[in-house]
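Exam review. A common question shows you a sequence with its structure tokens and asks you to describe the fold in words. Practice with the pair below. Do the first one on your own.
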Amino acid sequence: MASTSSVIFVTQNRGKADEIATLLGGVPVRWERLPLAHVPGDDLEAAASGRVSEAFRRLGAPCFLENTGLWVHEHGIDEPPAFAPRALKDVIARLGGEEAFWSRFGSAPVRARVAVAYASGEGTPRVFSGELVGQVASKTQGHRRLRLGPRCRS
């Protein structure tokens, strides 16, 4: 079992675990990289709940994870394409690079959703979700590797 003085965050992305540790301001975060089953579909909450349940069963300790999706509304399309943020590099590559991406999607409406799930073994996992609505930045912004910074308005 995990120590009660730390929390277990399950993700494939070490940088994301480091960011969570920073946000939690001194609470020790133990990073666990587990290959978890993919849950198909756009229901982020159901996917997060199923994946954190699997992580809890495998770790035998309370843990949490997050599941994020982006929906970019291209002009003239009723159902916007949805993809995981980690797939954004592939989308940009398929379109022919960042300039082609900005030409097609710059300033397009975007919806970013996140679901954070926690499993402790007591009942069903708790899931918390949120959403930001805004626009895809019209050009590359930011200081990190991918440097995408959607301008969001609530």
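Now try the second one, then compare your answer with the model answer below.
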Amino acid sequence: MEKIQTKRTILRRFRHSDLNNMILLESDPDVMRFTPSRIPQGIEKTEARLKSLLEKEAAYAPLGVWAVELKDTADFVGWFMLIKTEFEIPVKHARKNEILENKFENAQGRIDTQHLLISTLLPPAVKMFIEELEKEVDQLCGDRYRHTTDQRQPAVASK
């Protein structure tokens, strides 16, 4: 799977040519405050990170880290890390939640009667997950999510 398309975005594998985009992204304090490091990254760290992403890509396929572009403009807007996650929940609690109840019903014969093992983000579900995520982001952010080209001009001190 080399790319995933949704209504507005294309998720694709990273390329060496993404370095400048990654530098802009990872040097932006408004972006980095939401990451574990919380601080903008220097060029050297970003170069090393991209190199590592490219080297590890095959090991994580079809999941892993994907660059995100807007479909209409091909503007780079960030990245997604798609991973397989699993958790176990007692069936008596799963039956209290409609989504988990549906997963329980679809998992018949593959689980014991006491626990429901839930796996998310398996390859067939990736596109559906991203489309649902886009809907949630739209509801939360509205027009702010509909990215316009950001030229990221350096700030100029006012006189």
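Model answer, second protein: The domain at 3-82 is CATH 3.40.630.30 (Aminopeptidase). The longest strand covers residues 64-70. Full marks require stating both points clearly.
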